[in-house]
Structure formats: structure tokens, C-alpha cells
Design brief:
The protein has 708 residues and is α/β, with parallel strands linked by helices. The chain contains 16 helices and 29 strands.
Length: 708
């Protein structure tokens, strides 16, 4: 294993989030109207509570047999006509119901000529379940649910309940006298945090992205340009009236189109209780956060992006969830969604519960969540968070702190089966939609088909490239010759997976510094190094992902509560980085050589790989047909190099299509602005060669004069 990601998911080092606290007391059923009304201004977050040392556990944890044998109340009402057929129950209990969100949760319904809402929830260890809300005075005796046979699902129809009704489920367990009010695990909409109830919701939205959806699956995505702009909606830009899904649409589209990115990737938009988790500790896997508007407002944003030919990838977190009392943890008096044993069910870094991927109903829940975002919100892909933590039973655990699998190994076999099931569903039902793994280890075949023994993801983040390259760029150039392998090591594994090269949010938080601050040197050298880093990224085989703020060359690292430092664009050096990124995206799209063979070794050749002494690398990118070529020469020292011979595949004139040292980017203007002519001398296993001037701390790209 090359490396493992062990840093915790976002947790403020000074304070632990509410999500990390011991479960709170259940919300009183008689909450006042002011607490429940969405129009009430949201108060500032309460002070954070101390982190919980371990996953809460009951005095006795019942096993599956005890739960199944638990008697239902003798006076339980008879089960009425149901929205859940026998096939639904069978598929759900088998872990094969991909549309469980259509049956569980709250659904507006007309029953026997009466309008109301149908409620259904999975709570197999409950002795009593009721729906409580503003429509019944939060009275747990007003609307009890009835069990659906032995499925563990409870349901009922409540007349008169309409859109916007606020509700929770009162759960009374067979075990330990446990009683709690829970938000709906399948809820489509929830109150604005810190309020925690669910909201009955059904919204009609008329999509206008037919053209985008029809063409999305055309061709092989491996051979298309994919450059992703990753952003956090709440801190991208502060807008008049507050940030909403709707009012961010126009400025975001304008910015992304101007820079030339093909996709945006939203950090998790699913409902979460604590702002400082950035959305990575989710309580509502079927609901966009109400912080920024309604579900239809998010659909509007995605629709507008599609109409502007911009794809949308959503971060999705099926690995773990917070311990908040209204959420999934200890749902029905048992560890229902999570493993009971903290060696399997509690994440020591993130202080969260880990999903039990071996429980069939949990698999139905998670696969249905993935399908929900692809089907209902037209997402073009899911970036699956923390895959490494799912694959390894000993992830971030000390010796003796984990339970081996049935063969004595550390592989999480249930998680492997779940991930394959997930990717087969997406690949089979949503042509053109991507699944992308944030996976930081050397686990083999992450992005290979399940039919070949792989996990089935379409793409995988190349965390090794990210760490090696950033480490190299932080070095004093005088020492870089001793670390040349940080630039070249990737050649040993570049084709093992289908990679995304990420410079993500994780690298610019918690004291790591912004990309600009990571760069070595004085002011001029920092900007030159950053420009070289970005160009090297676009010249390296693999799809691209860049976190917001890199285009501004921000000095400050990212903080979720404040907007980006947009004022920096008044300064030429910062504008130069933005302009460079715009040109990089344009060249990446226009030159097949830079994207068509991103995932194939035939598209890449080292022309000069061993010049550690001068910290120079030269590569050749070409398309599959061999009709488009781009030579990339990189000089990672502040010393300009003249008369540098570079092999090229074609005779004739070569023009400089990009130079990160150009004056309009803020550089010194050293380079080859008039182009160069091949000399007729073979070099580096190429039929010809050119003589270049390599500018300091810079990357130059050249193409034959007749191409592009």
C-alpha cells in the first residue's frame, strides 16, 4: 500500500461539532410554532458539545433473532391497504430495492377519496411507532403506524396532511425502554438546521435539460475532456439576500463558462446538522439541505447548469453518519443502520457511526439514495467519499482495534459487495453518469469493471499524484534534484486505474495553507511555481479537478463560513493565474492530444525523464490517431535554460501554444514566442528535434504549426 488517508473529515480543531456529541434528548413533541416555522430566522449555531468517546450502546444489544421474535403490541390496528406490495417488501429485505424512496418516507396520497399523506419507516425492533407533527399537536398517540408483516417496516395513512407539514417518527423500542423522536431517514426535505424535523414534500419541476441528458451518454467518457470545478455552495460567493440554489445559478454559470470547466462538483448538498462538517456528516440522504432552498430550487440550479453545457457531480457519503439523536444512529433501540461493535461501527477519526454494509436493508437504503440523486436530480455523477475507509476494516485503527473478516483478512467484504452493487446499478441504469472514488490506497482495480473483478467505479482520484506533486512544489528548487522521483514516480502506476488528478478542498484547510502559500520562494517565485503546478496538472494524463479559489491564487486557506477572496482579482499577478487557468481549460478541450488518451498509455511518452540535475522534465502527449501532438517542457528551477534540445515526432515549425512565464500571466516573458523549427536531428527516440529556451519555474507547451 503506497499511502493511506488518515486525516479526519472536516472537524474544527478548536471545537467539536454537535454531530460529535453524545445524543441529545429527544425533541419535545409539543415544540412551539416558532421553532417549527421555516420562515423564522435561523439562530447562530449553538456552542459545540464535547466529542463522544465512543459509539453509544444499549446495556444489551439484541441479536437478529431477538429482534425478529419481538412481539408486536397485541392491540395493534389492522394493516390497511398499503403502498408497499409484497414484492417491495421482499426486495427491500433482500437488499435489492433500488427505489425504496418511492415507498418509504412520507408521500402525499389520496386514499378512498381522502387526501393525506402515507408514512412508512423501517424500525424492526420497535414495539410502537407513531408519526407526530404539527398536524396532530406532536401527540404520539394520535397516529400510530402498523407493521408490514415481518418486514420491519411500519406504515399508516394520515388524512388531511399536506405539503409542508412538519413531522417526526416516535419510536418506542422493545429494548431498554428506549424512546426517541427521529427524523425521517427517507425524508425529501427537512427543517433548516439547527431544527431537525422532516417536512412532507412533493414538488413538481419541469426540466429543460433534454438536450443535455440525451447527449450525455454519447461516446466514451474516458476520451472526453473532463475538468471539474469543485465548490462549496455556502462559501463560494456571498450574495444579496443570502446564498440560495437559485440566485447562485447565474454567477456560477458565468464563472464556470468563463474559465472553461466542463463540470462542477458540489461538496455534499445532502441535509446535515453541522455547518462545519461541510456536508460530510449527513442525516438526510434523500434531501438537499434546506439552507439554500427547496428541492425544486436545487433542481433549477442543476437544470440551468445543464442548459449551459456544464455537468454536475455531487459528493455522496455512504460510508458514515453523525450520532445526532434525530438521525440514523441507534434508530429503533438497536444499532440498526450501524454496526453494534464499535470496532466496526464507530469511526475513531471522525467520531461518527459506520454503515453496516452487511445488512440487506441498509444496502437497499444506500443504493436507493444513489439512484435518487441520479434520477430525481439529474446528477451526472457521484463522487463517493472516503472509499478507502470502507474497504479496510483496520482503516485508521490500532492493532486489536478492529475485527478481521471471515478469512482473517482486513478487507471489508460487505463493503466490497455493496460498492460493486452500487456501480452496477449506476452503469446499468444511467448511461453517461459517472461514479468517482475518493480512494487513497493501492487497492487494485478500483476503476475496472466488476465483470473483471474490479469495484466498477468509472474514475478514481489519484491522491498519490496530488501528495507527491505538492510535496515537490514546496521544496527549495536547489533541493528538487534530489526529489525528482516525485515528478516521475507516477509513470509506474499511471495506467493501473482511470484517474482524476485532484487539487481538492482537503489540501487547503486545517493549517495546510492555500496552494499559493504552499509554493516555495519569494512573491514572484510563489506565483511562478503555482502557474507551473497548474500547467503540469493539465499536461499530465488524467481528468482534472480543482477546488474553488485556486483560480484567484488566494493567500488564505479555505474557510467554510466566509466567501472566496474575490477582491484579489484587482491585482495583476492574481488575474494572471485566472487567465492561465482559462487558457489551460481551452487547450485541454481543443487539443485531442491532451485528453483523448488520458486513460491509455499510448497517449503519453517521456521525452526527457532523467534530468534531475536541472529539474527538467519533457513529455509528449498525442491523440489516438497520431494526428495531434503536444510537447510539454517543464523547468522547475528559477534558472532559464537556453539551447535545450527536445525530441519531436514531426519535422517543420512548432509554435508555443502556452508559456506560463508569459508576461500577460505575470511572468518574465522568457520563451519561444516566434516558435521553433525542427533541426533534422533525431533525439530521444523521436525522428526530429527542436532547440528551446526553457523559462524559469515554468511550463511551455508546443504543437506543430499545422495543428490546432
Amino acid at each position: 500500500m503506497r499511502r493511506r488517508k488518515t486525516h479526519p473529515k472536516p472537524v474544527d480543531p478548536a471545537t467539536a461539532p454537535e454531530s460529535n456529541a453524545e445524543p441529545r434528548a429527544a425533541r419535545p413533541s409539543g415544540s412551539g410554532p416558532a421553532e417549527r416555522t421555516r420562515a423564522t430566522p435561523r439562530p447562530a449555531p449553538a456552542p459545540a458539545a464535547p466529542a463522544a468517546p465512543e459509539l453509544p450502546a444499549p446495556p444489551v444489544t439484541p441479536d437478529a433473532a431477538e429482534v425478529a421474535a419481538a412481539a408486536r403490541p397485541a392491540a395493534a390496528p389492522q394493516r390497511p391497504w398499503s403502498r408497499l406490495g409484497e414484492l417491495d417488501l421482499h426486495l427491500f429485505n433482500e437488499g435489492r430495492h433500488d427505489r425504496a424512496y418511492e415507498k418509504l418516507g412520507a408521500h402525499l396520497h389520496r386514499h378512498e377519496g381522502v387526501d393525506g399523506a402515507w408514512f412508512a419507516v423501517w424500525a424492526p425492533a420497535a414495539r410502537y411507532v407513531a408519526v407526530i407533527g404539527d398536524f396532530n399537536g406532536w401527540d404520539p398517540g394520535a397516529h400510530p403506524l402498523v407493521p408490514c408483516g415481518a418486514s420491519g417496516i411500519w406504515e399508516t395513512f394520515v388524512p388531511g396532511v399536506g405539503k409542508g407539514a412538519v413531522y417526526k417518527f416516535r419510536i418506542e423500542s422493545h429494548f431498554n425502554g428506549y424512546k426517541v423522536d427521529k427524523a425521517d431517514p427517507y425524508g425529501r426535505f427537512h427543517e433548516v438546521a439547527p431544527r431537525t424535523a422532516s417536512i412532507v414534500w412533493h414538488g413538481d419541476y419541469e426540466w429543460g435539460d433534454e438536450r443535455w441528458m440525451a447527449k450525455r451518454g454519447d461516446g466514451d467518457f474516458h476520451r472526453k475532456p473532463i475538468s471539474i470545478y469543485e465548490l462549496h455552495i455556502g462559501s463560494w460567493r456571498k450574495l444579496d439576500g443570502g446564498v440560495t440554489y437559485r440566485n447562485i445559478a447565474d454567477p456560477l454559470i458565468e464563472h464556470v463558462r468563463d474559465l472553461g470547466f466542463t463540470h462542477v462538483e458540489f461538496m455534499p448538498v445532502m441535509e446535515h446538522p453541522f455547518d462545519g462538517s461541510w456536508g460530510y456528516q449527513v442525516t438526510g440522504l434523500f434531501a438537499p439541505t434546506s439552507r439554500f432552498g427547496t428541492p425544486e430550487d436545487l433542481k433549477y440550479l442543476i437544470d440551468r447548469l445543464h442548459q449551459a453545457d456544464i455537468g454536475v457531480i455531487l459528493d455522496w457519503v455512504p460510508s458514515h453518519f453523525p450520532l445526532d439523536a434525530h438521525g440514523l444512529a441507534f434508530f429503533d433501540g438497536t444499532h440498526l443502520y450501524e454496526h453494534a461493535d464499535p470496532r466496526q461501527g464507530f469511526h475513531p477519526d471522525w467520531k461518527t457511526a459506520i454503515f453496516n454494509f452487511g445488512r440487506a436493508e441498509v444496502v437497499s437504503f444506500l443504493v436507493s439514495s444513489a439512484r435518487f440523486w441520479l434520477a430525481q436530480f439529474h446528477a451526472d455523477g457521484l463522487r463517493v467519499d472516503a472509499v478507502a475507509s470502507m474497504l479496510y476494516l483496520d482503516y485508521s485503527r490500532d492493532e486489536g482495534g478492529w475485527i478481521p473478516n471471515e478469512y482473517g483478512g482486513r478487507e471489508n467484504l460487505d463493503a466490497i459487495r455493496f460498492l460493486r452493487r452500487l456501480n452496477e446499478m449506476v452503469g446499468g441504469q444511467f448511461p453517461g453518469a459517472l461514479t468517482i472514488a475518493e480512494e487513497s490506497t493501492a487497492w487494485p482495480m478500483v476503476s475496472r469493471p466488476t465483470s473483471s473483478g474490479g469495484l466498477g467505479f468509472h474514475l478514481k482520484w489519484d491522491m498519490g499524484w496530488m501528495h507527491d506533486t505538492l510535496r515537490y512544489m514546496q521544496l527549495d528548487p536547489i533541493h528538487r534534484k534530489f526529489h525528482h522521483a516525485d515528478l516521475t514516480f507516477r509513470g509506474l502506476y499511471a495506467w493501473n486505474e482511470n484517474f482524476v488528478l485532484p487539487l481538492s478542498h482537503d489540501e487547503v484547510v486545517h493549517g495546510k495553507g492555500s496552494l499559493l502559500r504552499k509554493m516555495h520562494g519569494d512573491l514572484w517565485q510563489r506565483f511562478a511555481n503555482l502557474r507551473a503546478l497548474l500547467a503540469a496538472m493539465y499536461a499530465t494524463p488524467g481528468k482534472k479537478l480543482l477546488f474553488m479559489g485556486a483560480e484567484l491564487a488566494t493567500w488564505n486557506e479555505w474557510y467554510y463560513a466566509t466567501e472566496l477572496d474575490w477582491h484579489l482579482l484587482q491585482y495583476p499577478s492574481h488575474r494572471g493565474v485566472r487567465d492561465l487557468l482559462r487558457d489551460l481549460n481551452r487547450l485541454y478541450r481543443e487539443h485531442d492530444a491532451l485528453h483523448e488518451a488520458d486513460c491509455e498509455p499510448e497517449g503519453f511518452t517521456w521525452l526527457d525523464v532523467e534530468n534531475a540535475e536541472q529539474s527538467v522534465c519533457v513529455t509528449l502527449r498525442r491523440n489516438r490517431a497520431g494526428t495531434d501532438h503536444v510537447v510539454v517542457a517543464m523547468n522547475f528551477t528559477p534558472v532559464p535554460r537556453t539551447g535545450y534540445r527536445v525530441g519531436v515526432p514531426l519535422a517543420g515549425r512548432w509554435r508555443e501554444i502556452l508559456n506560463t512565464d508569459a508576461q500577460h500571466y505575470g511572468g518574465s516573458g522568457v520563451g519561444n514566442p516566434e516558435g521553433v523549427t525542427a533541426t533534422g536531428m533525431p533525439w530521444s527516440n523521436q525522428r526530429d528535434s527542436v532547440i528551446l529556451t526553457l523559462p524559469p519555474l515554468a511550463v511551455v507547451m508546443l504543437a506543430p504549426e499545422s495543428s490546432g
